[in-house]
Amino acid sequence: MNEFEREVQSKNNDVIDSGKGFIFSFLFFFIIFFIGVIVKVIGS
Predict the structure, then answer these.
(1) CA-CA distance, 27 to 21, in Å (whole number)?
(2) This model's pTM is above 0.90
(3) Rounded CA gap, 6 and 32, in Å?
(4) How far apart, in whole angstroms, are the C-alpha atoms of residue 5 and residue 13?
């Protein structure tokens, strides 16, 4: 066992952390897309 396995900084589940990252990035790009759609509708 190496020193990184003995001294764990975060005991969170990696699946939950990666899920949060996926959801936040998906929401970010969805908001950017939605703003673009609104601008296109207003401009036409």
Answers:
(1) 10
(2) no
(3) 42
(4) 15
For 16, residues 6+ apart whose C-beta sits below 8 A from its C-beta are none
H helices within the chain, ranges in order? 3-6, 14-43
For the segment 11-32, what is each residue's pLDDT rounded down to a tens digit? 778 899 999 999 999 999 999 9
41: CB partners within 8 A, 6+ apart: none
pLDDT tier, 8 (very low <50, low <70, confident <90, very high otherwise): confident
